[in-house]
Amino acid sequence: MSLHPSLQTYADAWTHAVEAISELVSPLVESEWNRATPCPAWSVRDVVSHVIGMDCEMLGDPRPIHTLPRDLYHVQTESQRYMEMQVDVRRHHTAPEMTSELEYTIIRRSRQLRNENRDPSTKIRGPLGSEQTLEVASRVRAFDVWVHEQDLRTALNKPGNLDSPGAYVARDLLLQGLPKVVAEKAGAPASSAVVFDVGGPVEFLRTVRVDAEGKATVDNAPSLGPLATIAMEWDVYFRLACGRVSYAAVRDQVKVEGDQDLGDAILRDFAVTP
């Protein structure tokens, strides 16, 4: 295989998640495509449209020429408008059209990954005219598809794959956002530590340490005297971190020891995804 070893993890995670999505939606009747998902304002059809559209962009396909309706009130920012374009252009597609395009896109992307021989540091086109390295783009793609697989599983009441390859990509990417959540958003004091104890299918213990200058880092060493310890299950953690649920909705599933006010401040603004 020509794929660079550092990209293989992301290729495997993407493949596992996107094939799971295909299996989930292939048998759906037309009405089920309209079910709401935890992804704000998006239906099952919208989520699958987004997956198709972003993978088409990874393939280098031109973006659709399309004018968004003015009544999409959930679309407020330039980034949201960018993402919504690939979704809205497919809003009236039938179930067979959706599944056919998804299957064709998976075939094309799988072939692209099999033949990929570029260096991970190669710059490629990203959203809104930005540039990303191939490695970053591959990581984000694997993360995005796994999270949307979980959106679909919730909407269709078919839980699963909480410990699949994509789950571990998601864990690592979400953990990168913890220092900002603790130090900047919640305002944890200098020279303090907050421990996150996550159980379930993906289990981990991480400590966010805020130094004397207020800069935060995350590591996997325990803290002897944390200001707060926050414990929850993996499915609660990633849904909070991805903005799929509010703290108020899952408060009874989260345990805060130590500084309750700090724990509440962290959890109220826990989302790290756009």
UniProtKB/TrEMBL annotation:
<dbReference type="InterPro" id="IPR024344">
    <property type="entry name" value="MDMPI_metal-binding"/>
</dbReference>
<keyword id="KW-0670">Pyruvate</keyword>
<dbReference type="InterPro" id="IPR034660">
    <property type="entry name" value="DinB/YfiT-like"/>
</dbReference>
<protein>
    <submittedName>
        <fullName>Maleylpyruvate isomerase family mycothiol-dependent enzyme</fullName>
    </submittedName>
</protein>
<dbReference type="GO" id="GO:0046872">
    <property type="term" value="F:metal ion binding"/>
</dbReference>
<keyword id="KW-0413">Isomerase</keyword>
<dbReference type="InterPro" id="IPR017517">
    <property type="entry name" value="Maleyloyr_isom"/>
</dbReference>
<dbReference type="GO" id="GO:0016853">
    <property type="term" value="F:isomerase activity"/>
</dbReference>
<dbReference type="InterPro" id="IPR010872">
    <property type="entry name" value="MDMPI_C-term_domain"/>
</dbReference>
<feature type="domain" description="MDMPI C-terminal">
    <location>
        <begin position="169"/>
        <end position="263"/>
    </location>
</feature>
<dbReference type="Pfam" id="PF11716">
    <property type="entry name" value="MDMPI_N"/>
</dbReference>
<dbReference type="Pfam" id="PF07398">
    <property type="entry name" value="MDMPI_C"/>
</dbReference>
<feature type="domain" description="Mycothiol-dependent maleylpyruvate isomerase metal-binding">
    <location>
        <begin position="15"/>
        <end position="153"/>
    </location>
</feature>
